Structure formats: C-alpha cells, structure tokens
From TrEMBL:
It comes from the Bacteria. InterPro entries: HTH_LacI, LacI/GalR-like_sensor, Lambda_DNA-bd_dom_sf, Peripla_BP_I. GO terms for molecular function: DNA-binding transcription factor activity; transcription cis-regulatory region binding. This is LacI family transcriptional regulator. Residues 33-87 form the HTH lacI-type domain. Keywords: DNA-binding, Repressor, Transcription, Transcription regulation. It comes from Luteimonas marina. The keyword Transport does not apply.
Amino acid sequence: MDRRHASNESFTSSLENDYIAAIAKPWRGGVSVTIKDVARRANVSVATVSRALNGHQNVAEAVRKRVLSVADELRYSPHHAARSLSSRRTQTIGVVLPDLYGEFFSELMRGIDQVARERGLHLLVSSYHGHPQEQGAALRTMRGRVDGLLLMSPFVDGAESLAEDLPAAMPVVLMNSALAASGRASVGVDNHGGAMAMMQHLLQAGHRRIAFIAGPDDNFDARERLRGYRDALAAGAPGVEPWVLPGDFDEASGHRAGQVLLEAEQRPDAVFAANDMMALGCLFALSQGGLRVPDDVALAGFDDIPLSRYVHPALTTMRVEIAELGARAIRQLLEPATPEAQEHALLAPRLVTRPSSASRATT
C-alpha cells in the first residue's frame, strides 16, 4: 500500500469515526455519551472501540472486555443508523417463521437470540401465521432492513414462488425446509430417521398396533415423520396396516385424535404423535376416557419440548435440540466459510425414553 493510499484510508476512517461519534450520543444522566468517551475511559483508540463493539476478531480479548465494561458502565449504545450509513450494514438479522406460538418456536428463538446477542446483533422477527400467501409479504418487508435472513418455510408446495420472493443478493439460511436442496444453505432435522427410531423403540417394546397422529398435509416435517412411521412399520411389523389419524401440530388436534381412538372398536397398543403438542393433547383425551398411559396404551411424541418431561407420565419422545437448531442456523449465516457450517446440515434427533412408553411385558 502506498503512502498516499494509506493516508486517504486513515482520513476516511477518521471521518467515519467522527461521524459516528457526532450522531451516536446516548444520554446518561442528561449528558451525551459518545464513542470518544468510551475510548478515552478505556484508554484505547476510537477505531479499537468500534472493532470491539462490532465483534471483530483483531482485538485482544482483554481489551475487548475492558471496552465492553466501560461501554456498559457509561451506558453507551452505538447509533445503528450511523453504523449502517458508515458500513452499509444494518447489524440486524431477519427471522421469518410460520408462527410464534408454542414451545417449539420459543426454544428456536432462544437459540437464535443467544448467538445474536453474543455478536451484538439485533433481530427483526416476522410471522406469516401459517399462511403461505402471507409468507411472500413477510419476506418482502425484510428487504433493505436486514443483513441476512433466517427462514423456516415448511410448505411442500409453492417452492417456485418462494424462490422468487427470496432476495437474490441477501445471505439466507433455510430451517427445516423442503427447499433444502435448492442451492440455498440450510439446517434441518432428520425427521425420517427420527420417526424410524421411535417406531423401532415401540416395536421392540412389544407394541404392534401403533396409531400415528400426523401433522399438516402440506408440512415438510410432517410428511417426513409420516414416511418414517410407514417405513418402520413395514419393516418391523409386516402385514400390520398403518393407522394414521389427521393432526395439525397443536394440542387440540391431538385431543381430537385421542377421542377418535377412545371410540375405536379395538384400541391401539401405542400411539405415536408427530410432535409433542399433539401427544400431550392425546394424553389428556385418553385420561378423560379412563385409559391409563402406559398401562392401557403407550404414548410417544417428537421434539422433546420442555413441558414433555413434566407431565404425568413423563413423555417418551425424540429429542430435537431446538435451541441448537436456531443457533446453528444463525452461525451458519454469519460464518459460512467455517468447516462446521455445512451447506446442508442435518441434525439427528435422539430417543429419550420415559414412563409413557413402557413395554407391554412391563405393563
């Protein structure tokens, strides 16, 4: 680098820092606090403060901690409009989900938010309430407002229209999406393998008539779990017909399925629900009908939401590290070049056995 270029770069950096300092003035007890105040108190340069606050790696850890401590003490918060103008970045990550209700999405957001806070980033969260037609509108609102996007689009149909709505130049990571093979980076759960593992557990416990409460027909996760149920039943209990009841991934549909099973001429040995929320709704219906779990009917779910271990009996389920799914997705978005950030990462769920699925010999 020649001397003139270095001088120009230094001058530009100085202007940039002065501009940020001029308009980024949070108030502390009626006195404005600037980035220069933080630099002066921490005994470092303004550029070092900027790098430390932005999470850059070329800052010694001791210096970073000192800067963060001083910034916290002075209650300094960078003005993100100034930061955006100077770096052309918003320091914000967009998250578009089909819903925000329920423990699954709460855990997912917890994992995303933890990584975002560690990196000093903000989140802009939107839900399209399970309506595919609103998904495009939610995605379009993110354009120009975020630096990257995390999207959970579970719909099996509508892949072409979704691809059109995704901003071409923006980094995107898909979560649990049927578009995982579309060339976009993705993080998902091995739903088929997880359902196979649960069915093998129930079959090995001596259960043969195993009813399955399915998820929504147009949902990718639901289809994969149903496919795993059918494949495992065909392999482990040849000649046994699948027993599939409709569900919608919520407690109410699980409760309705439980009521249908209560009225059946012959009850199942076990019930496998495609997610824990439906399993809990079914558990309530079976209890209302006078059946005991697992003495009369074994029961299992999928996801291992926190509530599943606190009901009676505690629910056997496939543990999906839901928070880790969110954390893995945002890390892959922020660090696409690292070895662990696979282009298409698939997380394997783990069988968690609890009293709700005791073997027939035990009951």
